[in-house]
Write a structure and sequence with these properties.
By secondary structure, this protein is mostly helical. It is 58% helix and 2% strand. The chain has 9 helices and 2 strands; from the N terminus they run H-H-H-H-H-E-E-H-H-H-H. Strands 1-2 form a two-stranded antiparallel ribbon. The longest helix has 17 residues, at 72-88. It is globular, with a radius of gyration of 18 Å. 39% of the residues are buried.
């Protein structure tokens, strides 16, 4: 539902028709109300418990802020992203585990399991979230840093054909490139270049090889 809301919010930001905003805002307000009613300290699964969710939900919350000017949507976005990042972001590899069940899994070569599609979802999610995130949001630097770190990490793992394999750290075990993950990572890096977050000289060759 939150991923689909991105389309309706894009439409609203173009023509400002209230019927394109009201259902989405009502649904997201209900999510906020529910999160505020939960008792602190309870061991519940985090809302965005798998890395793909960072593409599905955060860009919608950022667009809802842009449509309404209400910072409560950004506060929720920042809080939930921080929780997911704390649980799934590997600060050494600068890549995301698919979900908590993957943290201790290993590839055939003994390396950690990081799936290209998941990394792509996150990098594209970072780009689409930053697009509408307030410039003065205290958490903005975190999103920028993650896009920079992830871009540097995946650039080093790019295959000779310009694409990435499903298992990022064990490409020898995957004979075919993984196209959707490659496309999403390419988008994230291209957006970063065009918006001054990534060094153009360093990352343009990476994006060009992938595009070709």
């Amino acid at each position: 539902q939150q991923a689909l809301a991105q389309a309706y919010l894009e439409l609203y930001l173009m023509d400002r028709k209230p019927d394109e905003l009201a259902p989405t805002q009502a649904r997201f307000n209900a999510i906020l109300a529910q999160s505020q009613q939960e008792e602190p300290g309870l061991n519940r699964r985090i809302a965005w418990w798998w890395c793909d969710a960072l593409f599905m939900a955060p860009p919608a919350w950022a667009r809802l802020y842009a449509a309404t000017g209400d910072m409560k949507y950004i506060a929720y976005l920042d809080e939930q992203w921080a929780k997911t990042s704390k649980e799934l972001y590997d600060t050494q590899a600068h890549l995301y585990a698919r979900d908590a069940s993957f943290i201790d899994k290993r590839q055939k070569n003994g390396q950690k399991v990081f799936w290209s599609r998941g990394e792509g979802w996150v990098m594209a999610g970072l780009a689409r979230t930053l697009e509408y995130l307030p410039k003065d949001d205290p958490a903005r630097a975190m999103y920028v840093t993650q896009l920079q770190q992830m871009s540097a990490a995946v650039a080093k793992l790019q295959g000779s054909d310009g694409l990435w394999r499903a298992g990022m750290l064990d490409p020898a075990d995957y004979s075919q490139p993984e196209i959707s993950g490659s496309a999403l990572m390419t988008f994230g890096m291209a957006w970063g270049i065009n918006n001054g977050i990534l060094d153009r000289k360093e990352f343009t060759p990476v994006v060009t090889r992938a595009w070709d």
